[in-house]
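Inputs:
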Amino acid sequence: MAGKFCVSLTAGTDDPDRATVAFVVANAAVACDQEAVVFLSTEAVRLAVSGAADAVAEEGFAPLKDLIANFAAAGGTIFVCSPCFKKRQLDAASLVPGAVIVGGAKLVEFMAGGCPSVSY
Amino acid sequence: MSRSAEAVLLRIVGRPCTGCGGRCLAREAVWSIALGFKDAPRCLPCLGLGLGREPGELRTHLDDYVRRRECYTAAWAEAVRLDGDETGGAGATRTATPDVEEVAWDAGAIGCGELALALRMKLLPLPPGSVVAVTATDPAAPEDVPAWCRLTGHTLVSASPPVYRIRRKGV
């Protein structure tokens, strides 16, 4: 049975280094057959909007938009903090594939049974 | 149902074997459909290798299976027509040789999550039992590749950095 794995990210394009590494680790988790979730909160929620990550390409890493797309294509899920998203008045109709806007209960439900997590 | 098996056959016929890249006859494509490989047809030797069965014995079983089921009647008739007198793999004279089943892949310097995801994408489309010889120069690969194999259930056949031979797990 696959285990769970949560990557918590609070940085967006304001800290491309942190955002990139978070998705690299998330890709490792999903590639290791884990039920992987990236939890985007505070500034990171901007990354859930299509096109927002397009300009981020850290040296030595794949472009952020590719890392996000590969994560979703491999079966990973992106939880987007609902109040953080609303506060920034972002467009819920333009989410990247794999992203879903969730409240705290959804995150708690995913992690409550025991779930390793790494935070960026 | 009969139309769908035939439709799938017509869509995939002529494609090379997903396992060895060699020729895949229409009859072999129908057997592949029956075994669930409808988007990745394989020749009989590769089907046998993947399932751990002797090709001749597998052919007898699949022949019987396909002919007993009405849903394959139209597809089978079309396959026989397309193949004509050719028996090819259907005659079970070919054998899958280790050198065509072992795929070499140079992963270059990618590492960490990118390497893990690339390994996954490289192995999963291959038939069970296939071996991929990966060359990965990332300094973390000696730790990461064995860990990835332990987590996913694929077998690390040998590790001589930068080359790692990994056998894809079964179905």
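The two ends of chain B are 25 Å apart (CA to CA). Flag for discussion at group meeting.
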